[in-house]
Amino acid sequence: MTLSPVVLEDFDDLVRLWRQEGVTRYITGRPLTEEEVWLRLLRDIGHWTSLGHGNWSLKLHNGTMVGCVGLFDYRRDLVPAFTDTEVGWVLGEDWHGQGLAREAVERALEHADRKLNLSRTVCMISAENPASIKLAEAVGFRFYADGHYKAGSVRLYERMRAKGAVTG
Hints:
By secondary structure, the protein is α+β, with helices and mostly antiparallel strands. The chain contains five helices and eight strands.
C-alpha cells in the first residue's frame, strides 16, 4: 500500500468512495454529492499547501484507491473543541476487515510522532461505529470525552506519543 497526499486526479476515486453507504454511515450519515467531494478535495489539498500535512490517498501497489487517512486541523465546530491535530481514516466497503486501515493509521501516527513531533493526537468516532473504535484503541487511542458535532453525539479519543519515541 502507498500513501500520497491527495491530488486533483483522485477526484473520481473519491466520488466513488464517498458514495458508498458503508463509508458514509457513521461519518456524514448519507452519500456525498460530487460537489461535496470536490469541496472536501480542495480543502484537503489546501491543508497540505498551508500546513504541510493533511489527508493521504491509500492506494494498492496497482494504483487502486482503497481509502484515505490523514492528520489535520479542520477547526471543527465541536464541543469540547479539539486542541490538537486530528487523525482520521476512511476505507472503501470492499476493503473493510483486511488490516489496511490499521496499517495506514499506524503510518500516519508514525509521521505524527517522528516528522511533526506531535505529543498528542485526537479523533472523533460515532459511538455506533465499533470497528473504528476497535481500530483507534488498537493503535493507542483512549476515550476521554463525549462530544457533540453538528447534530450528533461523538466519542472523543486521544493518543499520547510514546515516551522515548524518536523524532526528527
